[in-house]
Design brief:
With about 300 residues, this protein is mainly α. The protein has one domain. It contains twelve helices and five strands. The strands form two sheets. The chain has a three-stranded mixed beta sheet with strand order 4-1-5. A two-stranded antiparallel ribbon has the order 2-3. Helix 1 packs across helix 4. The chain is globular.
Length: about 300
């Protein structure tokens, strides 16, 4: 049933994306801020309490409710799980903005491309040229697909809808508390690092399998460690190698040049490579669905 639940949630999210007020980053971000204001005294112990209330408790409630529904009415539990995934998966969050930016770049409308990228990535882009816009857009596409799609699916396969809830709320908590570096705030960062360790490598392997396998592994092995965030570096290096494009490099940021390690091999980023990144995401998603379908068949045959 997991395959059908996931397929149904993806179909709903693709055709009828949930309103922004129901997205995790909207409502849970507000909850995370309330918990931080209420519990943050700089101590890790209170960070654990706040994180447990904001992440573990909702995930446990979801798991318990779905377990009871499964015993009473399995079809109803499947529908509830589908609805939860529908609200958690950011299915069009990587493709629609990327396609809009690529269209603006192809029309030589640099101001529109910069404006859309700034809204999407949250970074200042007023000094970017077309190549820099395409580069950052590809990086954002790869990371958004991981955090909003691949990693939640990974945890859904392992732990059911409660696993996807655990991951997405943990990511929201890490994003909201990431502005300061106290023992309280580091709790969310460390827990999310642990939750993301395996999914990030699964995503990187997926990029390699559906793209240029040898270049993806080479870039992963030789370039990922140079990126400031090692976990993101693994995914970006593998994605860049799979696409055959250069990512990273220097970016102008509020009048200051931001020096970043170079990732990938091949040509400079442009609109075509941005659309290739969207295609790469779709192929990884198909790969995940095929693997889940095979696991479902093997379970049925073994039961």
């Amino acid at each position: 049933m997991s395959f059908l639940v996931l397929l149904g949630a993806l179909w709903l999210a693709h055709h009828w994306p949930p309103p922004s007020v129901l997205t995790v980053n909207h409502w849970h971000g507000a909850l995370a801020q309330v918990l931080e204001r209420s519990f943050n005294d700089g101590r890790a112990a209170h960070g654990v309490i706040a994180w447990s209330l904001g992440v573990m408790l909702p995930a446990a409630i979801v798991g318990a409710v779905l377990l009871m529904l499964h015993h009473w009415a399995a079809p109803l539990a499947s529908l509830a799980g589908m609805g939860i995934l529908y609200l958690l998966l950011d299915f069009r969050g990587f493709s629609t903005p990327a396609e809009e930016i690529a269209s603006a770049l192809r029309d030589s409308n640099a101001p529109a491309a910069r404006s859309r990228l700034a809204t999407w990535s949250g970074q200042p882009t007023e000094a970017f040229g077309a190549q820099e816009v395409a580069c950052l857009a590809i990086e954002t596409t790869l990371l958004r697909a991981h955090y909003g799609l691949f990693a939640p699916i990974f945890w859904f396969v392992l732990l059911g809808p409660a696993g996807a809830v655990l991951y997405r709320l943990s990511q929201s908590m890490d994003t909201t508390w990431g502005g300061t570096d106290t023992a309280f705030n580091q709790v969310a960062r460390r827990i999310f690092y642990g939750l993301d360790w395996l999914p990030a490598r699964f995503t990187a392997i997926g990029f390699a399998v559906v793209g240029d396998f040898e270049d993806a592994l080479y870039c992963w092995r030789t370039q990922a460690s140079a990126w400031p965030d090692r976990t993101k570096g693994i995914m970006l290096a593998s994605g860049a190698g799979a696409l055959g494009v250069h990512l990273g490099g220097t970016l102008p940021n509020r009048g200051i040049l931001e020096f970043r390690p170079e990732l990938g091999l091949g040509d400079a980023a442009d609109a075509d490579y941005l659309m290739s990144a969207v295609g790469l995401i779709w192929r990884v998603l198909v790969l995940m669905l095929v693997l889940l379908l095979l696991l479902t068949f093997s379970h049925w045959l073994g039961s």
